[in-house]
Amino acid sequence: MTTSHPKLWRAGGPATHGDIHTELTSFWGKITATIDWCERNYVFSSYIAEFWNTISNFAIIALAWYGLVQARKYRLEMRFVMCYLSLMIVGIGSTIFHCTLSYAGQMLDELPMIWAVSVFLYAMPTDAFREKYGTTVIVVCVLYSAIVTVMYVQNKDANFHEVCYGIGATTIILRCIYMYRENSGMPQLAQVLKFALACYLGAFVLWCFENTFCTLIRQFRDTVGWPVDHLTELHAWWHVGVGLGSYSFIVFMSMCRQIELRESQARIRWKTLAPGIAIAYVYKSAP
Hints:
two-stranded parallel ribbon
């Protein structure tokens, strides 16, 4: 029986002989993933295929770690700890994928994305909803993730994965909007939700733009040179934006949960990361 190899899609079009030589002489060897993004490979090191796409995942990992620390410090429920853990796993898997451009690395990135969406969806329902449909939610989330996993491993179609992930992400966004409408009396909730939506949807626009116009973007990078060329690695900015957005969605869900539990000591606070950039977190003062 012959083993089918996944077909490689390159955002920048067909590889040149120089590109192929660079890949074959790199530490990781021939690309086995089904996708090669717009960033040029092995520019900085033969050990890192996509440098900026790799290190930008540190933002996702750091945000997830910070969320974990805050969740444990302020005794948030395990469902939100699971959300931060799933986000961290995605960041680690994405780091491996972009570093190696291997098929195994790709699976470590893309399959956890599907399962992370299910973890987020599991964390969202209210107690009243859980009493009626709690078991159904768990079964649907697990079945959806398991079926998508099996089908994706079989068909190796990146478009299939993107559609399935998009369905889950859209459901999360719509559910968060609905949750805000139920808790619209708290202005800070609106700030967190708007920030999450702006980061996530803005990152999605950058992701789509780079995939569609990669050839033109590469020409622009070649023209302007250092350092502007590196600042236009839009897939790397997608990682930063989706990390900030996903983290903020968890904070939003966590605060909605505190309101449901009538935790009068719970507040949203903002931690400044850099001038003009801050992230929210749920704070509980002593009773």
